[in-house]
Write a structure and sequence with these properties.
4-stranded mixed beta sheet; Ubiquitin-like (UB roll); alpha/beta; 7 strands; 3-stranded mixed beta sheet
């Protein structure tokens, strides 16, 4: 399809473009289209299972596309992925010639993000690129991965807990410098759910302070009650090292 054309589309072509735009929005979401304030939260997001809109869109447009090839590779063609592309491809439960399930493409993207976050790639972005063959009614999907830096945790701070509880909580985390792993945070909150506030969660009670040059991240576990104001205490400002 010539993306530079602005006139002369048939009704079928317009429906085609509407379907393609819908696919891009559903697969990418806002997190891959814009800079988000807390990119690591994508590591902890549940996989979406809302795919009810997909068959309705196909039915109304009169078009039904099947999956051609689905590949996973680096966004920068001069780089190689740290993880095996074939293993990443298996996270998409889609087979060639199946009716293209856009919801499963998005689910696969979510699973890829969670895998990368277990290996320290907290800024990873994944984006699908679609190549449409109107004659064959197939769509090739290339998943482009920008891994970003691989981060190690070099500092952990606790706010809002007493010294005794802090000592207990620190024992539940790796010692020294360790490769960031989102699963460690998830397990930390599960194992300590009886001593932490009832609504405590990685998304709400953990701040990341990155040193992009050194590829390190400091974790701040903030369990203070009431409204949290960033840098509300000068003493706490000094305790927390920031990049």
């Amino acid at each position: 399809m010539n993306r530079n054309k602005t006139r002369g589309y048939s009704a079928e072509m317009l429906s085609h473009r509407m379907l393609t735009s819908f696919m891009v929005l559903v697969c990418c979401g806002t997190s891959t289209l814009a800079q988000v304030s807390k990119p690591w939260e994508r590591c902890l997001e549940p996989v979406s299972r809302d795919v009810t809109a997909v068959p309705r869109i196909s039915s109304e447009s009169g078009l039904q596309y099947r999956l051609g090839a689905l590949t996973v590779g680096p966004a920068d063609s001069e780089k190689e992925l740290s993880l095996k592309p074939q293993a990443l491809r298996s996270e998409f439960r889609l087979q060639t010639n199946e009716i293209l399930n856009v919801g499963e493409v998005r689910n696969g993207l979510s699973r890829l993000t969670k895998i990368y976050c277990k290996f320290g790639f907290i800024d990873v972005t994944t984006e699908p690129d679609f190549k449409i063959d109107d004659a064959k009614r197939t769509i090739d999907v290339a998943i482009l991965v920008d891994e970003g830096r691989q981060y190690f945790v070099n500092d952990v701070q606790f706010w809002g807990v007493d010294a005794k509880l802090e000592t207990r909580l620190r024992r539940k985390l790796p010692r020294g410098s360790w490769l960031f792993n989102s699963a460690v945070l998830e397990n930390f909150f599960k194992e300590n759910r009886f001593v932490l506030p009832a609504d405590a969660s990685p998304g709400d009670n953990v701040e990341f302070h990155r040193d992009t040059k050194g590829a390190t991240v400091a974790l701040l576990f903030d369990f203070r009650t009431g409204p949290k104001q960033e840098n509300s205490s000068s003493t706490q400002q000094k305790k927390m090292r920031k990049p």
